[in-house]
Specification:
This protein is of the alpha/beta class. The protein has one domain: Luciferase-like domain (TIM Barrel). The strands form three sheets. The protein has an eight-stranded parallel barrel, surrounded by four helices. Strands 6-7 form a two-stranded antiparallel sheet. The chain has a two-stranded parallel sheet with strand order 11-12. The longest helix has 23 residues.
Length: about 375
Amino acid sequence: MKWGVWLIAGAMPEDNHQQVLQDSLAYGRAADELGYDEAWVLEHHFTGYGICGSPMTMAAYVLAQTKNLKVGTGISVIPLEHPLRLAEQVALLDNMSNGRFIFGIGRGVFVKDFKVFGVDMENSRDMMDEWVDVMQAAWTNRHSQFDGQFVKFDEIELFPRPLTLPHPPVHVVAQSPSTIEWTAKRGLPMMINFFLDDDAKRTQIDLYNEIAYEHGHDVDNIDHSISCLAGVGDTTQQIVDASRDRLIKWQEEFVRASMIFRKENMNMKGYEWYARQWEQNAIAGEYPVVERVDSNFKINPIGSVQECIDKLNKTVEITGVEHFLCGFESLGGGREQIIESMRRFKEEVIPHVETRRKSDTAQTTSPAENTISEIA
């Protein structure tokens, strides 16, 4: 099994920004010292939801301060940068870290980012497809050239060459069915979101496996990961009482800053799935942020040691995934308390989470035998 830690760097209005960043870096060092496998940094712009605007810079800093920890971008919003610049940065970090860098990517959902940086958000899916083609060509070929819809260049040679062959690992945050399909066609591992219950996670994996199988990928050996909020206390209620208000504010900031749920953006090409999710909540009479936060406490490994163990074992049993990315920082509580929660989780919870052979749950049957209507 693999265990990672999210370095979220979320800032409330009253927080000191330098302190927030220094705390996140401290959690990265603690993860390395405690024996976690990975740390993941985020990319956000113009919002306290996350104040790291350059995941490559932060990843480089964490890599330099740790010895064994792998560090990933979770995610790099790749349509906002030229793909060759990204390919160079990934290869550079791969070499400087001796192969400890992981490139997590996504197309982004924050409308303002695209407007400010002058990128047409409705092209984000096509751009991500082309960007990955450009980067993989640059990493795997001594010389490459490209004549695409968005990017054109004559023959170039990328320096430095990647240390990890054929290229550093690429993971994809995939939420909407169309992005899951795109990820599956390429056989890239998914990073599955923390707000989904286990059955919804399983449905995403079933959809992925059907399409990946059709395209010749070995679904038993794809390293999907599940993001989760995590925290160990005496009881779940103790953590809820201490962190619910902060978590609601944090999620409200996502809704406000992303702007993806505003009426004028509901019909944006490529983002229709988000509009449907919002409408379904409205029809059900639910206030999405509060309902989602309360659900998060129930479905994520938050609570007593035994509660965390039971929830994780259930997730492994249903999904077959054995790679978890834990967001201790999102629950707040101060640096010492968060590191103590990380320690208890590593020493008291993780040893009791049972592995399960992926072939027990992987859908390797013919596509006709799978059912994916729940998410399509």
